[in-house]
Amino acid sequence: MIFTVAIDGPAAAGKGTVSRAVAAHFGFAYLDTGLLYRAVGAKNGDPVQAARSLNGEDLARGDLRTLEAGQAASRVAALPDVRAALVDFQRDFARRAGGAVLDGRDIGTVICPNAEVKLFVTASAEVRARRRWLELGGDAAQVLAEVHERDARDMNREDAPLRPADDAVTLDTSDLGVDEVVSKAIAIVAARIAKRDA
Ligand code: CDP
Questions:
Q1: Which atom of ligand 1 is nearest to the CA of 107?
Q2: For the chain, what is the mean pLDDT?
Q3: By CB neighbour count within 10 A (0-12 exposed, 13-18 middle, 19+ buried), where does 183 fall?
């Protein structure tokens, strides 16, 4: 079956957790597209060349989850040629046999505008900063400032800015536990599969 679940949202909203759970539940493949931008941002030299020559080894680096790598990612992600170099890989992944979940910023709007399911997973900046701080530690005020900075850069860039697709279902996770968010997401996907098979 070819079936794409597009999950977008701001930094540390819980996209990865929801995406992994949905992929595991339905046996779909999962692509964390943020990792592509993190890997490009972490490479030395011209980011466009880095995006064009990205390989498995680049994605396996152990230092891609840091706050610095997140900031570097959002800077290179504003470059249209970097984004263009990563489009085909993401679209091919989305339409692979067996179903796919992709999470990022522009999956429902630009990469897969025809995705069968689009979710926009979000939470207040304070809640997201707290989650990131619990994950990475450091100075809490600085983590919040970086969340605001990255949100602003991701939402205000010209090319593929972060925004929900018109037909996306928004899941605000500020006051929901992981299990509740995951159950909602799974129910939405299951309903869409049932409709398609009807
Ligand atoms: O994990 P977190 O939500 O903090 O970030 P990420 O998903 O790993 O993405 C890192 C950065 O890559 C984002 O701040 C975006 O600038 C960029 N990105 C993007 O532009 N488009 C995507 N589809 C995914 C990530």
A1: 23
A2: 96
A3: middle
Which residue from 119, 132, 154 has its CB within 8 A of the most atoms of ligand 1, so it is best to mutate? 154
Output the CA angle 180-138-134, nearest 5 degrees: 15
Map out the domains of the chain with their CATH numbers.
4-197 (3.40.50.300)
Instruction: Specify whether the backbone of 168 is left (phi greater than 0), alpha (psi in -120 to 50) or beta.
Output: beta
Which tokens in the block code for residue 107?
A: 């999956």
The confidence score (pLDDT) of residue 1 equals 87
Mutate to test the pocket of ligand 1, among 105, 111, 150, 163 (most ligand atoms within 8 A of CB): 105
Nearest ligand 1 atom to the CA of 150 is 14
57-94 burial, b if ≥16 CB within 10 A, otherwise e? ebeeeeebeebebbebbbbbbbbeebbebbeeebeebb
Alpha helix ranges (H) inside 15-139: 15-26, 33-42, 47-52, 56-59, 67-76, 80-94, 125-136
Contact (CB, 8 A) for 119 and 5: yes
Structure tokens at 140: 């809490």
pLDDT tens for each residue of 108-143: 999 999 999 999 999 999 999 999 999 999 999 999
- CA distances (Å), 79 to each of 39, 49, 85, 150, in order? 14, 12, 10, 15
Tokens representing residue 152 in the block? 């602003």
